[in-house]
Amino acid sequence: MVRESWRLLLEEVDRVPFWVDWKTLSLGSRAFLRVGGVGMFVLGCYVTPLFYCLSSGNKALTFSGNLTNRASRRGRETARFVIETCLPNSLRRDGDGFRITLRVRLMHAQVRNMIAKSGRWNYEQLGMPISQVYMAAMMSLLSAQWIEGLAHLGLKLSAAEEEGMMQLWRYSSYLIGVNQEMLFATKQEALRYWRMVKESEPEPDEDARQLVASTLQAIPEVMGFSGKPKERMYAFCEGLAVSTMGRDLSKQLRLEETVWRFSPVLLRALLPIWAMTERIVPPFRRFSQYNGTKLWLSMAEYPPHGGLEMYAASKDHG
After folding, report:
1. Torsion over CA of 135, 138, 139 and 141, rounded to 10 degrees?
2. What is the pLDDT of residues 63-75, one digit of tens each?
3. Count of CB atoms situated within 10 Å of the CB of 66
4. Which of 93, 142, 201, 293 could form a disulfide with 33 if both were Cys (CB 3.0 to 4.6 A apart)?
């Protein structure tokens, strides 16, 4: 039985869907990595908190209490998953992104098994832990909502880059075991699905508030801040979260409306200039690509070796 399950799993992931275009995936990878710190703040202050706001979907995360107690380490582990997924060609059969995605898929199975054996899970109320619904919701956040978060800060990807991002996470979703009908082909599909999930959820509960607070508090720690700089960085993250998620949701999460909630106003003035400079000055674009990737690597729990040379030497970033 176990051997048969392994055979079926390997047969599934060995098949590359016809819609996978490696050049398109690589374009999405470069776009994700190039925005560096901006994309990182969108991930930590917007995308991840949005998922934690799902009061039914977050229960598998709070089951053991490890996420709130070890938020910094989990933040680095998430960064590792993202960086290894988004390095160009990393989702190919022999890539690190492929391997870590399969490890996450197996970890999900282990968690489901552990919860089932505990006898403490309310299946009637909560359904299957780490269900298809919430795996697809997370992938819609990592792709479409991440793109929307960048746009809120004034950084708009090109249509080709958006397509690359969507296909990148579509293939990641396929590998991690999301059902075929929930593999979003476009940003509009992913956004529509997220709205459906959000509308079916109750308001954020105490678990959601604790998860979001611990995540925002972990960001300065992961970045190596301490003392007053750590406090200021946390205030910035909290303000950015309020701005991107909106006042209603922020009030439900009991986030403080710090002065930093106005930071997107400044960013929307500066980031388009940065993007325009990248388009007209190729060396600046290569500089952004290299340093954005380097920043992601520094945030990962176990930084993968290599990956930077492709940006330092490559001439096809335009």
Report:
1. 160
2. 766 555 667 777 7
3. 12
4. 293
CA nearest neighbour of 240 among 224, 219, 222: 219
Show the domain range for 141: 23-302
Neighbours of 282 (CB within 10 A): 12
- Give CA–CA dist 12/6, Å, rounded: 10
Provide the pLDDT confidence category of residue 173 given band limits of 50, 70 and 90: very high
Q: Is residue 77 part of a domain?
A: yes
pLDDT in tens, 197-216: 999 999 999 999 999 999 99
Closest CA to 164 of 22, 264, 68: 22
Domain count of the chain? 1
Cα torsion at 288, 290, 291, 297 (round to 10°)? Answer: 140
Is the distance from CB of 290 to CB of 314 less than 8 angstroms?
Answer: no
Residue 6, domain member (yes or no): no
Q: Rounded to an integer, what distance in angstroms lies between the CA atom of residue 311 and that of residue 89?
A: 14
The answer to whether 312 touches 53, Cβ cutoff 8 Å, is no
Q: Residue 3: inside a domain, yes or no?
A: no
What does the alpha-carbon distance between residue 261 and residue 237 come to, in Å, rounded to a whole number?
9
Tell me the C-alpha to C-alpha distance, in Å, between residue 249 and each of 53, 76, 243, 309: 9, 26, 10, 42
Question: Has residue 222 been placed in a domain?
Answer: yes
User: Could you give the angle at the alpha carbon of 91 between the alpha carbons of 88 and 94, nearest 5°?
Assistant: 105
To the question of pTM greater than 0.70 for the whole model, the response is yes
92 burial level (CB within 10 Å; 0-12, 13-18, 19+): middle
- Please name the residue that has the structure tokens 């600046």: 284
Q: How far, in Å, CA of 46 to CA of 294, rounded?
A: 22
| Whole-Å CA distances, 277 to 155, 183, 296 | 12, 35, 22
d(C-alpha 195, C-alpha 167), whole Å: 20
